[in-house]
Design goal:
Elements lengths: L38 H9 L5 H5 L5 E4 L3 E2 L9 E15 L5 E8 L4 E7 L13 E7 L7 E3 L2 E4 L12 E4 L8 H15 L9 H6 L5 H9 L4 H32 L10 H9 L6 H15 L5 E6 L5 H13 L4 E5 L3 H15 L6 E4 L5 H12 L5 E4 L13 E7 L6 H8 L6 E6 L5 H7 L4 E5 L10 E5 L4 H13 L3 E5 L7 H16 L7 E4 L5 H13 L4 E4 L12 E6 L7 H8 L10 E5 L7 H12 L3 H18 L1 H4 L13 H17 L8 H18 L3
Parallel strand pairs: 2-3, 5-7, 10-15, 10-16, 11-13, 11-14, 12-13, 14-15, 17-22, 18-20, 18-21, 19-20, 21-22
Antiparallel strand pairs: 1-9, 3-4, 3-6, 4-5, 6-8
Helix pairs in contact: 5-6, 6-21, 6-22, 7-9, 8-9, 18-19
The chain binds adenosine-5'-diphosphate and magnesium ion (MG).
Length: 710
């Protein structure tokens, strides 16, 4: 049976295609209006972030291949990727034994012959003609006779028309439905047509200072570089633009904030000083420096936005509490928002011990409290009288109203979405905000993620702390762990055993439950074994942690809920099961649960070296080798890349197509310095900065609305 012929029935093609844009395309023209881009291709391009001609011109190759050297066939080296030119001697269509069709072409050039084969592309037999000059780029078979399978091909029509061979060839990111050949040809043509007319918003002085290519040149070289160095100069210029526009956007945001009316708190503050005098220790010099920076901000009548960064155990909490007391002592309410119930409970308990004797009420909005207790707490917050509120994102619920909120602490901020951070701020008019994080962020990322915040760092631990010895233990060596735990528990110390789970589902929790049972029935059972995980009701969790803190149970089996912030100074041993499943930052956080007093502490990571991935091995080796959180964060960034480091979407990092945050730190710093200078010169970005301003707003305005509510 033959297929019916519909050709006569099909209406003329133009009738179906979208109306042609009568005028010439501009940079802002959506690509779907361009010739050759139908709805399906424009959909694919959209997945690559390409909507307009401008987006297309900025689509960055993943890498380049130098295919300039055209070798004679006789000089091809077996097994290597090379580019070769020759004449078509024969064309054939074949099928493999499994029925896969292929096109075969025999090429010759007087020095030898080469066979090229393309599988599943039988139509190629119609592309080639005998006697044609053809260029191929591909890997030559490792054994004679010389063959190339699925090489890139190009039919020579004059040197200018080369797209895929005979030049430095860009390799673009692809998505299903788009071919490398199509993209390459399309972008080469598009940049030839549009690049020369691209207006360059960057003032010439800035370009000269940093030896940047003109934008038109950069775009052209991105797609059609004559030399590899041109390609990298192009990338550098475009990366500079990204960093520069981004820096401008967040620095402007910050400038706007500084003119908003904030609260000038009373500094020095009698209440904070009284609390400080009651502490059982003196603050470390680093804590004092951080506190003074914060106080300095608080005294100003502009809203503080500060990031307090410091490795686990360095004592951020007390700094935050003293700052909160400064607000309270000035007649305002303060709130501390923690990422987990356990941590909120711990903050509340600590804060109570310190501040209730001073007459400051602490309101803990825990998950499990009764409606009447909650009602009472809400009434207190809605009033005008100063107090300290502590809670999780429960503080963000609409019925939580603050009468006089002036100071907000967000602890361990990376656990919160930026929207939540903004949510608490919205409960007050321009409060001072202190964001705390123990996840040490490499400097490049800090500039991006928190570029709108002022940064202070606590870079020393309280005296007497010793680094935790970290040991990687295999399944077979478990008895070592048992012996170590027995010794420590017998001395009255505490130990954690962590079973990683991803979603705390019932199935996953089984591992933790079984581990706890095994310890209860084993030789360590007599020391008291607790089990805590995310599914327990808040009150029960609190009771279990309290028993561990008090020493009634000395061994605590836990899921990763103990990861953040839990502080039990008597705990000196940490066992992390299946450590290969956790990220480096998490592992370091967990390890930070021990070594919080002056006894030597130990951390066992359990993983079978035979059964884990290369990357997991690299992580564990880094953990064993490094105790410094910043060094680990840098290692983590190298291992995982910036996208995954934080969870890209929430961070705004996906805004960078060209700038590589791991490699381009100095470029980012340069761009930021230029942005600072530009805003000093022209705060409203007027005159020669108008183009830059437009570009910045186009690129970042909508994104910043979300990513920088902080
Ligand atoms: P993190 O920075 O990880 O949040 P914490 O604030 O939980 O650290 O502090 C860790 C422990 O160190 C707490 O038990 C705290 O009381 C104690 N601590 C804080 N500052 C000092 C100090 N200057 N001297 C001694 N101990 C301190
Ligand atoms: Mg903490």
């Amino acid at each position: 049976m033959t297929a019916p012929d519909y050709t006569e029935l099909t209406p003329p093609r133009q009738a179906l295609s979208p109306p042609r844009v009568p005028t010439r395309a501009t940079l802002a023209t959506p690509v779907r209006f361009l010739k050759g881009i139908g709805p399906s291709r424009s959909g694919c391009l959209e997945r690559l972030g390409v909507r307009t001609v401008r987006d297309a011109l900025l689509l960055t190759p993943r890498r380049y291949e130098d295919r300039r050297a055209l070798l004679p066939i006789g000089r091809l080296r077996l097994g290597e990727f090379q580019t070769v030119a020759g004449r078509v001697k024969a064309i054939g269509l074949g099928r493999t034994r499994r029925g896969v069709p292929y096109c075969e072409v025999m090429l010759e050039d007087g020095t030898g012959t080469l066979l090229a084969r393309w599988y599943r592309q039988p139509y190629l037999t119609r592309t080639f003609r005998r006697g044609q000059r053809v260029i191929l780029a591909g890997r030559v078979s490792p054994y004679p006779p010389r063959e190339m399978v699925n090489p890139e091909h190009e039919i020579e029509e004059g040197a200018d028309a080369r797209y895929h061979t005979g030049r430095i060839v860009p390799i673009y990111p692809l998505t299903a439905g788009l071919s490398q050949r199509f993209l390459r040809r399309w972008l080469a043509d598009l940049s030839r047509e549009h690049a020369p007319g691209i207006p360059d918003p960057l003032p010439p002085a800035v370009q000269e200072r940093h030896r940047l290519l003109r934008l038109a040149q950069a775009v052209q070289s991105l797609h059609l570089p004559g030399e590899m160095t041109e390609a990298s100069a192009a990338r550098r210029r475009l990366a500079f633009d990204e960093f520069f526009l981004f820096s401008l956007a967040i620095l402007r945001q910050r400038a706007v904030r500084t003119v908003e009316a904030g609260i000038a708190f009373r500094v020095p503050n009698a209440l904070a000083e009284r609390a400080r005098a009651l502490l059982p220790f003196t603050l470390t010099p680093a804590q004092v420096r951080a506190l003074e920076a914060i106080w300095n901000d608080m005294a100003q009548a502009r809203p503080m936005q500060r990031l307090l960064q410091g490795d686990v155990g360095c004592g951020k909490t007390i700094v935050a509490v003293l700052a909160a007391l400064t607000a309270i002592g000035s007649g305002y309410q303060a709130a501390i928002m923690a990422p987990t119930e356990i941590l909120a409970a711990q903050h509340a308990e600590r804060a109570r011990a310190l501040v209730e004797p001073l007459g400051v009420p602490v309101v803990h909005l825990a998950g499990g409290i009764t409606p009447s207790v909650r009602r009472q707490a809400l009434d207190l917050l809605a009033g005008e009288s100063p107090c300290l509120a502590v809670g999780t994102h429960a503080l963000l619920q609409p019925d939580v109203v603050f009468g006089r909120l002036g100071f907000v602490v967000v602890d361990e901020q990376h656990r919160f979405g930026v929207l939540q951070r903004a949510g608490l701020q919205k409960k007050a008019v321009h409060p001072d905000v202190l964001v705390m994080t123990a996840t040490p962020i490499p400097r490049s990322l800090a500039l991006v993620l928190y570029g709108d915040l002022d940064l202070c760092v606590i870079d020393e631990l309280p005296p007497g702390r010793r680094p935790v010895s970290t040991l990687w233990v295999e399944e077979a060596e478990r008895s070592r762990i048992q012996a170590e735990l027995r010794m420590r528990l017998a001395r009255g110390e505490r130990a954690y055993v962590v079973c990683p789970v991803v979603e705390e589902s019932a199935a996953e929790l089984k591992a933790a439950v079984q581990t706890a049972d095994a310890y209860r029935q084993g030789p360590l059972g007599g020391f008291g074994v607790g089990l805590v995980h995310g599914r327990l009701p808040a009150a029960e969790k609190a009771a279990i942690i309290a028993a561990f803190r008090g020493g009634q149970t000395r061994l605590l089996v836990a899921t990763t809920v103990v990861e953040v912030g839990v502080d039990v100074p008597e705990a000196t041993a940490m066992v992390i099961e299946h450590a290969d499943r956790l990220g480096l930052a998490q592992l370091h956080q967990l390890r930070g649960r021990v070594g919080r007093a002056d006894q030597p502490a130990v951390c066992f990571v359990v993983a079978d070296p035979q059964e884990i991935t290369e990357e997991a091995r690299a992580r564990l080796e880094a953990l064993v080798r490094e105790s410094d959180g910043f060094a680990l964060a840098e290692a983590d960034l190298r291992l995982r890349g910036p996208g995954e480091f934080f969870g890209t979407r929430q961070s705004g990092l996906d805004g960078f197509a060209l700038g590589d945050l791991t490699a381009d730190l100095s470029l980012l710093e340069t761009a930021r310095a230029e942005a600072t200078a530009a805003l000093a010169e022209a705060p409203a970005l007027e005159r020669e900065w108008a183009g830059v301003r437009r570009a910045m707003e186009e690129r970042w305005a909508s994104r910043l609305g979300l990513a920088h509510v902080g």
